[in-house]
Protein backbone atom coordinates (compact mmCIF):
# COMPACT_ATOMS: atom_id res chain seq x y z
CA UNK A 1 0.00 0.00 0.00
CA UNK A 2 2.89 2.37 0.76
CA UNK A 3 4.35 1.71 -2.69
CA UNK A 4 0.93 2.21 -4.21
CA UNK A 5 0.52 5.58 -2.46
CA UNK A 6 4.04 6.64 -3.47
CA UNK A 7 3.26 5.77 -7.09
CA UNK A 8 -0.04 7.66 -6.85
CA UNK A 9 1.89 10.79 -5.92
CA UNK A 10 4.50 10.31 -8.63
CA UNK A 11 1.89 9.91 -11.35
CA UNK A 12 -0.67 12.39 -10.02
CA UNK A 13 -0.08 15.04 -12.73
CA UNK A 14 -1.07 12.43 -15.37
CA UNK A 15 -4.56 12.24 -13.89
CA UNK A 16 -7.41 14.73 -14.19
CA UNK A 17 -8.12 16.91 -11.13
CA UNK A 18 -11.89 16.31 -11.47
CA UNK A 19 -13.29 12.88 -12.25
CA UNK A 20 -15.91 12.32 -14.95
CA UNK A 21 -17.99 10.10 -12.63
CA UNK A 22 -21.69 10.70 -12.02
CA UNK A 23 -23.67 10.22 -8.77
CA UNK A 24 -24.55 6.55 -8.27
CA UNK A 25 -21.44 5.24 -10.10
CA UNK A 26 -20.68 2.93 -7.17
CA UNK A 27 -23.50 0.49 -7.98
CA UNK A 28 -21.76 -0.52 -11.21
CA UNK A 29 -18.54 -1.25 -9.34
CA UNK A 30 -19.38 -2.62 -5.89
CA UNK A 31 -21.85 -5.44 -5.17
CA UNK A 32 -24.93 -4.38 -3.23
CA UNK A 33 -24.48 -7.24 -0.78
CA UNK A 34 -21.45 -7.74 1.51
CA UNK A 35 -19.09 -10.69 0.82
CA UNK A 36 -19.95 -13.88 2.72
CA UNK A 37 -16.42 -15.27 2.79
CA UNK A 38 -12.96 -13.64 2.76
CA UNK A 39 -11.52 -12.42 -0.51
CA UNK A 40 -7.82 -12.38 -1.34
CA UNK A 41 -5.91 -9.17 -0.73
CA UNK A 42 -4.77 -9.23 -4.39
CA UNK A 43 -8.38 -9.15 -5.50
CA UNK A 44 -9.25 -6.31 -3.14
CA UNK A 45 -6.10 -4.42 -4.08
CA UNK A 46 -6.89 -4.72 -7.77
CA UNK A 47 -10.16 -2.82 -7.24
CA UNK A 48 -8.59 0.26 -5.65
CA UNK A 49 -7.70 2.02 -8.89
CA UNK A 50 -11.10 1.43 -10.50
CA UNK A 51 -13.30 2.16 -7.48
CA UNK A 52 -11.35 4.73 -5.52
CA UNK A 53 -8.93 6.64 -7.68
CA UNK A 54 -10.69 6.83 -11.03
CA UNK A 55 -13.78 8.20 -9.33
CA UNK A 56 -12.30 10.71 -6.96
CA UNK A 57 -11.40 14.38 -6.97
CA UNK A 58 -7.63 14.70 -6.73
CA UNK A 59 -7.00 17.40 -4.15
CA UNK A 60 -3.24 17.34 -4.65
CA UNK A 61 -3.33 17.55 -8.42
CA UNK A 62 -1.39 20.60 -9.62
CA UNK A 63 -4.58 21.85 -11.33
CA UNK A 64 -6.83 21.64 -8.26
CA UNK A 65 -7.53 25.24 -7.20
CA UNK A 66 -10.86 24.82 -5.33
CA UNK A 67 -11.88 25.54 -1.69
CA UNK A 68 -8.65 25.85 0.32
CA UNK A 69 -5.61 23.59 0.36
CA UNK A 70 -5.52 20.35 2.29
CA UNK A 71 -2.07 19.39 3.47
CA UNK A 72 -0.12 16.16 3.06
CA UNK A 73 3.43 14.92 3.55
CA UNK A 74 5.18 11.58 3.95
CA UNK A 75 6.04 12.08 7.66
CA UNK A 76 2.39 12.89 8.28
CA UNK A 77 1.25 9.74 6.49
CA UNK A 78 3.65 7.82 8.77
CA UNK A 79 1.89 9.40 11.76
CA UNK A 80 -1.48 8.16 10.51
CA UNK A 81 -0.05 4.69 9.89
CA UNK A 82 1.31 4.51 13.43
CA UNK A 83 -1.92 5.88 14.92
CA UNK A 84 -3.99 3.32 13.00
CA UNK A 85 -1.43 0.62 13.64
CA UNK A 86 -1.32 0.84 17.41
CA UNK A 87 -5.06 1.62 17.45
CA UNK A 88 -5.38 3.12 20.94
CA UNK A 89 -8.23 5.38 21.99
CA UNK A 90 -7.27 8.40 24.07
CA UNK A 91 -10.32 9.76 25.83
CA UNK A 92 -8.52 10.14 29.17
CA UNK A 93 -4.94 10.38 30.37
CA UNK A 94 -5.23 6.85 31.76
CA UNK A 95 -6.64 5.40 28.54
CA UNK A 96 -3.59 6.66 26.58
CA UNK A 97 -0.93 8.53 28.57
CA UNK A 98 1.49 8.99 25.65
CA UNK A 99 -1.33 10.13 23.35
CA UNK A 100 -2.41 12.71 25.91
CA UNK A 101 1.02 13.99 26.82
CA UNK A 102 2.52 14.03 23.31
CA UNK A 103 -0.54 16.04 22.31
CA UNK A 104 0.17 18.51 25.12
CA UNK A 105 3.76 18.92 23.96
CA UNK A 106 2.98 19.08 20.22
CA UNK A 107 0.24 21.71 20.50
CA UNK A 108 2.73 23.75 22.52
CA UNK A 109 5.25 23.36 19.65
CA UNK A 110 2.65 24.55 17.16
CA UNK A 111 1.61 27.45 19.42
CA UNK A 112 5.21 28.61 19.79
CA UNK A 113 5.96 28.23 16.11
CA UNK A 114 3.09 30.54 15.08
CA UNK A 115 3.84 33.05 17.85
CA UNK A 116 0.86 32.44 20.15
CA UNK A 117 1.45 34.06 23.56
CA UNK A 118 2.71 31.79 26.35
CA UNK A 119 -0.61 32.07 28.17
CA UNK A 120 -2.01 29.48 25.72
CA UNK A 121 0.71 26.90 26.43
CA UNK A 122 0.13 23.64 28.30
CA UNK A 123 3.63 23.97 29.76
CA UNK A 124 2.87 27.46 31.10
CA UNK A 125 1.87 27.63 34.74
CA UNK A 126 -1.29 29.58 33.98
CA UNK A 127 -4.74 28.16 33.22
CA UNK A 128 -4.30 28.19 29.42
CA UNK A 129 -3.74 25.14 27.26
CA UNK A 130 -4.45 23.42 23.98
CA UNK A 131 -5.57 20.13 22.49
CA UNK A 132 -6.37 18.78 19.02
CA UNK A 133 -9.88 18.82 17.62
CA UNK A 134 -10.79 16.94 14.48
CA UNK A 135 -11.89 20.01 12.50
CA UNK A 136 -12.30 23.77 12.74
CA UNK A 137 -16.06 23.15 12.74
CA UNK A 138 -15.71 21.09 15.93
CA UNK A 139 -13.54 23.79 17.52
CA UNK A 140 -16.09 26.49 16.73
CA UNK A 141 -18.90 24.37 18.10
CA UNK A 142 -17.01 23.63 21.33
CA UNK A 143 -16.18 27.35 21.68
CA UNK A 144 -19.84 28.31 21.23
CA UNK A 145 -20.98 25.70 23.76
CA UNK A 146 -18.28 26.78 26.26
CA UNK A 147 -19.25 30.42 25.86
CA UNK A 148 -22.89 29.47 26.24
CA UNK A 149 -22.18 27.58 29.48
CA UNK A 150 -20.12 30.47 30.82
CA UNK A 151 -22.90 32.93 30.04
CA UNK A 152 -25.50 30.69 31.73
CA UNK A 153 -23.22 30.20 34.76
CA UNK A 154 -22.58 33.94 35.00
CA UNK A 155 -26.26 34.73 34.72
CA UNK A 156 -27.16 32.27 37.44
CA UNK A 157 -24.24 32.71 39.77
CA UNK A 158 -24.10 35.45 42.32
CA UNK A 159 -21.15 37.80 42.01
CA UNK A 160 -19.85 36.00 45.09
CA UNK A 161 -19.41 32.71 43.20
CA UNK A 162 -17.69 34.45 40.30
CA UNK A 163 -15.32 36.06 42.80
CA UNK A 164 -14.74 32.71 44.52
CA UNK A 165 -13.84 31.06 41.21
CA UNK A 166 -11.37 33.75 40.20
CA UNK A 167 -9.74 33.60 43.63
CA UNK A 168 -9.40 29.83 44.01
CA UNK A 169 -8.74 29.12 40.34
CA UNK A 170 -5.07 30.11 40.40
CA UNK A 171 -4.32 28.07 43.49
CA UNK A 172 -5.48 24.75 42.01
CA UNK A 173 -3.65 22.42 39.59
CA UNK A 174 -4.24 23.05 35.90
CA UNK A 175 -6.64 20.23 35.15
CA UNK A 176 -8.41 20.05 38.48
CA UNK A 177 -12.18 20.22 38.04
CA UNK A 178 -13.43 23.22 39.90
CA UNK A 179 -16.41 22.47 42.06
CA UNK A 180 -17.78 25.97 41.60
CA UNK A 181 -18.04 25.58 37.83
CA UNK A 182 -18.57 21.87 37.35
CA UNK A 183 -21.87 21.28 35.63
CA UNK A 184 -24.24 19.57 38.04
CA UNK A 185 -27.50 17.92 37.16
CA UNK A 186 -30.62 19.22 38.88
CA UNK A 187 -33.27 16.56 39.39
CA UNK A 188 -36.96 17.30 39.34
CA UNK A 189 -38.72 14.69 41.39
CA UNK A 190 -41.75 14.24 39.15
CA UNK A 191 -40.88 10.60 39.19
CA UNK A 192 -38.57 9.36 41.91
CA UNK A 193 -37.04 6.56 39.90
CA UNK A 194 -36.64 8.34 36.56
CA UNK A 195 -36.37 12.04 37.39
CA UNK A 196 -36.21 14.74 34.71
CA UNK A 197 -32.72 16.22 34.73
CA UNK A 198 -31.45 19.62 33.59
CA UNK A 199 -27.76 20.48 33.61
CA UNK A 200 -27.44 23.81 35.34
CA UNK A 201 -24.86 25.40 33.01
CA UNK A 202 -26.91 24.36 29.98
CA UNK A 203 -30.27 25.65 31.15
CA UNK A 204 -32.56 26.30 28.20
CA UNK A 205 -34.43 29.12 29.96
CA UNK A 206 -31.22 31.20 30.04
CA UNK A 207 -29.98 29.97 26.66
CA UNK A 208 -33.10 31.54 25.12
CA UNK A 209 -31.73 35.00 26.04
CA UNK A 210 -28.29 34.57 24.47
CA UNK A 211 -27.10 36.21 21.25
CA UNK A 212 -23.94 35.28 19.32
CA UNK A 213 -22.22 37.69 16.92
CA UNK A 214 -20.02 37.21 13.89
CA UNK A 215 -19.28 38.74 10.53
CA UNK A 216 -21.49 38.05 7.52
CA UNK A 217 -18.33 36.43 6.06
CA UNK A 218 -18.05 33.53 8.52
CA UNK A 219 -17.70 29.96 7.31
CA UNK A 220 -20.89 27.90 7.17
CA UNK A 221 -19.61 25.90 10.17
CA UNK A 222 -20.36 28.91 12.41
CA UNK A 223 -24.00 28.88 11.28
CA UNK A 224 -24.10 25.16 11.98
CA UNK A 225 -22.52 25.56 15.43
CA UNK A 226 -25.00 28.26 16.35
CA UNK A 227 -27.87 26.11 15.05
CA UNK A 228 -26.78 23.14 17.12
CA UNK A 229 -26.26 25.32 20.20
CA UNK A 230 -29.82 26.64 19.89
CA UNK A 231 -28.87 30.28 20.40
CA UNK A 232 -29.71 33.45 18.49
CA UNK A 233 -27.19 34.81 16.01
CA UNK A 234 -26.55 38.26 14.63
CA UNK A 235 -24.37 38.42 11.53
CA UNK A 236 -22.81 41.86 11.20
CA UNK A 237 -22.35 43.36 7.77
CA UNK A 238 -18.71 43.51 6.77
CA UNK A 239 -17.14 46.39 4.89
CA UNK A 240 -14.23 46.35 2.50
CA UNK A 241 -11.13 48.29 3.53
CA UNK A 242 -8.30 48.24 6.06
CA UNK A 243 -4.66 47.45 5.31
CA UNK A 244 -5.61 44.37 3.23
CA UNK A 245 -8.44 46.13 1.37
CA UNK A 246 -10.58 43.09 2.23
CA UNK A 247 -13.78 42.34 4.17
CA UNK A 248 -13.99 42.82 7.94
CA UNK A 249 -16.49 43.98 10.57
CA UNK A 250 -16.02 47.47 11.96
CA UNK A 251 -15.70 47.20 15.76
CA UNK A 252 -18.18 50.08 16.20
CA UNK A 253 -20.81 47.97 14.47
CA UNK A 254 -20.34 45.21 17.05
CA UNK A 255 -20.52 47.72 19.90
CA UNK A 256 -23.76 49.18 18.55
CA UNK A 257 -25.32 45.71 18.14
CA UNK A 258 -24.38 44.70 21.70
CA UNK A 259 -25.88 47.90 23.11
CA UNK A 260 -29.06 47.46 21.12
CA UNK A 261 -29.46 43.81 22.15
CA UNK A 262 -28.81 44.48 25.83
CA UNK A 263 -31.53 47.12 25.75
CA UNK A 264 -33.88 44.47 24.31
CA UNK A 265 -33.14 42.18 27.26
CA UNK A 266 -30.83 39.78 25.39
CA UNK A 267 -27.43 38.60 26.63
CA UNK A 268 -24.55 39.00 24.15
CA UNK A 269 -22.23 36.06 24.86
CA UNK A 270 -19.74 35.35 22.04
CA UNK A 271 -18.11 36.87 19.00
CA UNK A 272 -16.70 34.40 16.48
CA UNK A 273 -13.95 36.23 14.61
CA UNK A 274 -12.48 34.94 11.37
CA UNK A 275 -8.85 35.34 10.42
CA UNK A 276 -8.82 34.35 6.76
CA UNK A 277 -12.44 34.19 5.61
CA UNK A 278 -13.34 31.41 3.20
CA UNK A 279 -14.79 33.79 0.62
CA UNK A 280 -11.92 36.25 0.30
CA UNK A 281 -9.36 35.53 3.06
CA UNK A 282 -10.36 38.72 4.89
CA UNK A 283 -9.05 39.26 8.41
CA UNK A 284 -10.91 40.56 11.44
CA UNK A 285 -9.37 43.21 13.70
CA UNK A 286 -8.77 40.99 16.73
CA UNK A 287 -7.44 43.72 19.00
CA UNK A 288 -10.38 46.18 19.00
CA UNK A 289 -12.90 43.32 18.75
CA UNK A 290 -11.15 41.54 21.64
CA UNK A 291 -11.19 44.67 23.77
CA UNK A 292 -14.95 44.96 23.28
CA UNK A 293 -15.49 41.27 24.10
CA UNK A 294 -13.33 41.46 27.24
CA UNK A 295 -15.14 44.59 28.40
CA UNK A 296 -18.59 43.16 27.67
CA UNK A 297 -17.82 39.81 29.33
CA UNK A 298 -18.22 37.98 26.01
CA UNK A 299 -16.21 35.00 24.78
CA UNK A 300 -13.98 35.69 21.77
CA UNK A 301 -13.32 32.68 19.55
CA UNK A 302 -10.93 33.03 16.62
CA UNK A 303 -11.42 30.77 13.60
CA UNK A 304 -8.25 30.90 11.53
CA UNK A 305 -8.78 27.57 9.80
CA UNK A 306 -6.78 28.30 6.64
CA UNK A 307 -4.76 31.47 7.23
CA UNK A 308 -3.49 30.48 10.71
CA UNK A 309 -0.73 28.31 9.21
CA UNK A 310 0.84 31.39 7.64
CA UNK A 311 1.62 32.83 11.08
CA UNK A 312 4.47 30.30 11.01
CA UNK A 313 6.28 32.95 8.94
CA UNK A 314 7.11 36.05 10.99
CA UNK A 315 6.04 38.35 8.13
CA UNK A 316 2.42 37.09 8.47
CA UNK A 317 2.14 37.44 12.25
CA UNK A 318 -0.14 40.45 11.67
CA UNK A 319 -2.81 37.78 11.19
CA UNK A 320 -2.96 37.03 14.93
CA UNK A 321 -2.23 40.47 16.34
CA UNK A 322 -4.41 40.80 19.45
CA UNK A 323 -4.96 37.03 19.86
CA UNK A 324 -4.05 37.31 23.56
CA UNK A 325 -7.50 38.87 24.03
CA UNK A 326 -9.23 35.72 22.72
CA UNK A 327 -10.73 33.01 24.93
CA UNK A 328 -10.10 30.37 22.28
CA UNK A 329 -8.13 30.16 19.04
CA UNK A 330 -8.09 27.48 16.38
CA UNK A 331 -6.52 26.77 13.01
CA UNK A 332 -6.06 23.78 10.73
CA UNK A 333 -2.45 22.67 10.19
CA UNK A 334 -4.23 20.12 7.98
CA UNK A 335 -4.82 22.91 5.49
CA UNK A 336 -1.40 24.40 4.78
CA UNK A 337 1.12 23.00 7.28
CA UNK A 338 2.02 19.64 5.73
CA UNK A 339 -0.11 17.70 8.24
CA UNK A 340 -2.78 15.43 6.81
CA UNK A 341 -6.45 15.81 7.69
CA UNK A 342 -7.46 15.69 10.49
CA UNK A 343 -5.50 17.96 12.78
CA UNK A 344 -7.11 21.09 14.18
CA UNK A 345 -5.46 22.36 17.37
CA UNK A 346 -7.55 24.53 19.64
CA UNK A 347 -6.21 26.66 22.47
CA UNK A 348 -8.14 27.97 25.46
CA UNK A 349 -7.19 30.84 27.71
CA UNK A 350 -8.61 28.75 30.56
CA UNK A 351 -8.68 25.10 29.51
CA UNK A 352 -10.07 23.85 32.80
CA UNK A 353 -13.06 26.20 32.61
CA UNK A 354 -14.33 24.54 29.42
CA UNK A 355 -13.42 21.13 30.87
CA UNK A 356 -15.74 21.76 33.80
CA UNK A 357 -18.69 22.72 31.62
CA UNK A 358 -18.73 19.39 29.77
CA UNK A 359 -17.58 17.08 32.50
CA UNK A 360 -19.57 13.85 32.44
CA UNK A 361 -17.69 11.63 34.82
CA UNK A 362 -19.06 8.13 34.39
CA UNK A 363 -17.67 5.57 36.82
CA UNK A 364 -15.87 3.59 34.11
CA UNK A 365 -14.05 6.73 32.87
CA UNK A 366 -12.69 7.84 36.24
CA UNK A 367 -9.05 7.32 37.17
CA UNK A 368 -6.72 8.13 40.02
CA UNK A 369 -4.90 11.00 38.23
CA UNK A 370 -7.85 12.95 36.93
CA UNK A 371 -7.44 15.83 39.36
CA UNK A 372 -4.08 16.71 37.81
CA UNK A 373 -4.01 15.10 34.35
CA UNK A 374 -5.59 16.24 31.08
CA UNK A 375 -8.64 14.22 30.02
CA UNK A 376 -9.40 15.61 26.58
CA UNK A 377 -12.75 13.85 26.25
CA UNK A 378 -14.28 16.77 28.13
CA UNK A 379 -13.41 19.19 25.35
CA UNK A 380 -14.93 17.43 22.36
CA UNK A 381 -18.22 15.91 21.30
CA UNK A 382 -17.05 12.32 20.85
CA UNK A 383 -15.59 10.25 23.64
CA UNK A 384 -12.93 8.45 21.59
CA UNK A 385 -10.00 10.22 19.97
CA UNK A 386 -7.10 9.31 17.71
CA UNK A 387 -3.35 9.79 18.15
CA UNK A 388 -3.25 12.92 15.99
CA UNK A 389 -0.20 14.48 17.61
CA UNK A 390 2.05 11.86 15.98
CA UNK A 391 1.56 13.74 12.73
CA UNK A 392 2.74 17.02 14.24
CA UNK A 393 5.64 15.29 15.97
CA UNK A 394 6.85 13.59 12.79
CA UNK A 395 6.28 16.54 10.46
CA UNK A 396 7.96 19.15 12.64
CA UNK A 397 10.93 16.86 13.26
CA UNK A 398 11.34 15.36 9.79
CA UNK A 399 10.59 18.45 7.68
CA UNK A 400 11.51 21.25 10.07
CA UNK A 401 9.86 24.63 10.41
CA UNK A 402 12.06 26.34 7.81
CA UNK A 403 10.95 23.91 5.10
CA UNK A 404 7.27 24.44 5.95
CA UNK A 405 7.80 28.21 5.93
CA UNK A 406 9.24 27.80 2.43
CA UNK A 407 6.11 25.99 1.20
CA UNK A 408 3.87 28.71 2.66
CA UNK A 409 5.89 31.45 0.96
CA UNK A 410 5.71 29.53 -2.32
CA UNK A 411 1.89 29.43 -2.08
CA UNK A 412 1.82 33.20 -1.59
CA UNK A 413 4.22 33.75 -4.51
CA UNK A 414 2.15 31.61 -6.90
CA UNK A 415 -1.08 33.32 -5.82
CA UNK A 416 0.50 36.72 -6.43
CA UNK A 417 1.72 35.55 -9.84
CA UNK A 418 -1.80 34.55 -10.87
CA UNK A 419 -3.15 37.87 -9.51
CA UNK A 420 -0.67 39.71 -11.75
CA UNK A 421 -2.01 37.88 -14.82
CA UNK A 422 -5.54 38.93 -13.85
CA UNK A 423 -4.54 42.53 -13.26
CA UNK A 424 -2.98 42.77 -16.71
CA UNK A 425 -6.06 41.27 -18.41
CA UNK A 426 -8.70 43.64 -19.79
CA UNK A 427 -11.50 41.06 -19.34
CA UNK A 428 -10.95 40.45 -15.63
CA UNK A 429 -10.52 42.35 -12.38
CA UNK A 430 -9.43 41.34 -8.89
CA UNK A 431 -12.37 41.30 -6.50
CA UNK A 432 -10.00 41.95 -3.55
CA UNK A 433 -6.18 41.87 -3.48
CA UNK A 434 -4.71 38.36 -3.42
CA UNK A 435 -4.02 37.23 0.13
CA UNK A 436 -1.86 34.30 1.32
CA UNK A 437 -2.43 32.18 -1.78
CA UNK A 438 -6.09 32.98 -2.49
CA UNK A 439 -6.99 35.00 -5.59
CA UNK A 440 -10.55 36.34 -5.95
CA UNK A 441 -11.33 37.68 -9.41
CA UNK A 442 -14.23 38.17 -11.81
CA UNK A 443 -15.11 38.95 -15.37
CA UNK A 444 -15.80 42.66 -15.46
CA UNK A 445 -19.41 42.20 -16.66
CA UNK A 446 -22.11 40.66 -14.47
CA UNK A 447 -22.94 37.76 -12.13
CA UNK A 448 -24.58 35.74 -14.89
CA UNK A 449 -21.42 35.70 -17.02
CA UNK A 450 -19.26 34.79 -14.01
CA UNK A 451 -21.68 32.05 -12.98
CA UNK A 452 -21.56 30.55 -16.49
CA UNK A 453 -17.78 30.85 -16.53
CA UNK A 454 -17.45 28.79 -13.32
CA UNK A 455 -19.79 26.15 -14.77
CA UNK A 456 -17.88 25.95 -18.08
CA UNK A 457 -14.51 25.71 -16.28
CA UNK A 458 -15.68 22.88 -14.02
CA UNK A 459 -17.44 21.01 -16.84
CA UNK A 460 -14.24 21.26 -18.85
CA UNK A 461 -12.54 19.24 -16.05
CA UNK A 462 -8.98 20.41 -16.77
CA UNK A 463 -8.85 22.59 -13.66
CA UNK A 464 -11.13 22.82 -10.62
CA UNK A 465 -12.15 26.07 -8.90
CA UNK A 466 -15.18 27.19 -6.84
CA UNK A 467 -16.97 30.54 -6.81
CA UNK A 468 -17.59 32.94 -3.92
CA UNK A 469 -20.29 35.54 -3.35
CA UNK A 470 -20.10 38.64 -1.18
CA UNK A 471 -23.01 41.07 -0.80
CA UNK A 472 -24.58 39.81 -4.02
CA UNK A 473 -21.46 39.92 -6.22
CA UNK A 474 -20.28 36.60 -7.63
CA UNK A 475 -16.58 35.99 -8.25
CA UNK A 476 -14.15 33.16 -8.90
CA UNK A 477 -11.71 31.91 -6.27
CA UNK A 478 -8.40 30.41 -7.27
CA UNK A 479 -6.62 28.93 -4.26
CA UNK A 480 -3.08 27.57 -4.44
CA UNK A 481 -3.76 24.09 -3.10
CA UNK A 482 -1.27 21.51 -4.32
CA UNK A 483 2.39 21.67 -3.41
CA UNK A 484 3.17 20.36 -6.87
CA UNK A 485 1.56 23.42 -8.49
CA UNK A 486 4.23 25.48 -10.25
CA UNK A 487 4.37 28.73 -12.17
CA UNK A 488 3.72 26.66 -15.33
CA UNK A 489 0.45 25.37 -13.83
CA UNK A 490 -0.62 28.90 -12.91
CA UNK A 491 -0.17 29.96 -16.55
CA UNK A 492 -2.00 26.80 -17.65
CA UNK A 493 -4.95 27.66 -15.37
CA UNK A 494 -5.04 31.18 -16.79
CA UNK A 495 -5.04 29.76 -20.35
CA UNK A 496 -7.91 27.35 -19.53
CA UNK A 497 -9.93 30.15 -17.91
CA UNK A 498 -9.43 32.38 -20.97
CA UNK A 499 -10.53 29.58 -23.31
CA UNK A 500 -13.62 28.94 -21.19
CA UNK A 501 -14.39 32.66 -21.14
CA UNK A 502 -14.29 32.73 -24.96
CA UNK A 503 -16.87 29.92 -25.00
CA UNK A 504 -19.12 31.79 -22.55
CA UNK A 505 -18.89 35.07 -24.50
CA UNK A 506 -19.43 33.30 -27.82
CA UNK A 507 -22.58 31.61 -26.48
CA UNK A 508 -23.76 34.97 -25.12
CA UNK A 509 -23.32 36.66 -28.51
CA UNK A 510 -25.11 33.90 -30.45
N1 LIG B 1 -13.51 28.03 8.98
C1 LIG B 1 -12.97 28.55 7.87
C2 LIG B 1 -12.61 30.01 7.84
C3 LIG B 1 -12.73 27.73 6.75
O1 LIG B 1 -12.21 28.25 5.64
C4 LIG B 1 -13.08 26.36 6.82
C5 LIG B 1 -12.85 25.47 5.68
O2 LIG B 1 -12.32 25.83 4.67
C6 LIG B 1 -13.64 25.88 8.01
C7 LIG B 1 -13.85 26.74 9.07
C8 LIG B 1 -14.06 24.44 8.16
O3 LIG B 1 -12.94 23.65 8.34
P1 LIG B 1 -13.11 22.12 8.84
O4 LIG B 1 -13.32 21.31 7.61
O5 LIG B 1 -11.81 21.81 9.52
O6 LIG B 1 -14.26 22.06 9.76
Automatic annotation (TrEMBL):
Modification N6-(pyridoxal phosphate)lysine occurs at: 335
The keyword Lyase appears for this protein: yes
Signal peptide: none
GO biological process, any: amino acid metabolic process
Cofactors, names only: pyridoxal 5'-phosphate
GO cellular component: cytoplasm
Pfam families for the chain: Pyridoxal_deC (PF00282)
Classification via InterPro entries: Aromatic_deC, PyrdxlP-dep_de-COase, PyrdxlP-dep_Trfase, PyrdxlP-dep_Trfase_major, PyrdxlP-dep_Trfase_small
GO molecular function: aromatic-L-amino-acid decarboxylase activity; pyridoxal phosphate binding
Record's keyword terms, sorted: Catecholamine biosynthesis, Decarboxylase, Lyase, Pyridoxal phosphate
EC numbers: 4.1.1.28
Quaternary structure and partners: Homodimer.
Family: Belongs to the group II decarboxylase family.
Name of the protein in its database record: Aromatic-L-amino-acid decarboxylase
Organism: Panagrellus redivivus (Microworm)
Amino acid sequence: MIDFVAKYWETLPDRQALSDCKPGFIWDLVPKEPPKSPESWDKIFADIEKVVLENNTHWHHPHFFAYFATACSYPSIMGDILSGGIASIGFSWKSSPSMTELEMACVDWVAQSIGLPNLFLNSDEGPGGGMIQSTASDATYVAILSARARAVANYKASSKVAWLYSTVSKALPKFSLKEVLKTKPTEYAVDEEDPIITFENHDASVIAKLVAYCSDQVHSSVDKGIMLAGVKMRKLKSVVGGPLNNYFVEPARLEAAIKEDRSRGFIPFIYVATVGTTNTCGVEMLRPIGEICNRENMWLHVDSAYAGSFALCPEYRYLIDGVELADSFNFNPHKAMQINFDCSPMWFKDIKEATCYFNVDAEYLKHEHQAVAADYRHLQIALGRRFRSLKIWFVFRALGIEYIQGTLRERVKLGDEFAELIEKDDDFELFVPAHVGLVCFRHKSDNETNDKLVAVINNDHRIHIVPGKVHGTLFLRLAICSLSTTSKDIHYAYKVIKECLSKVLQAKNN
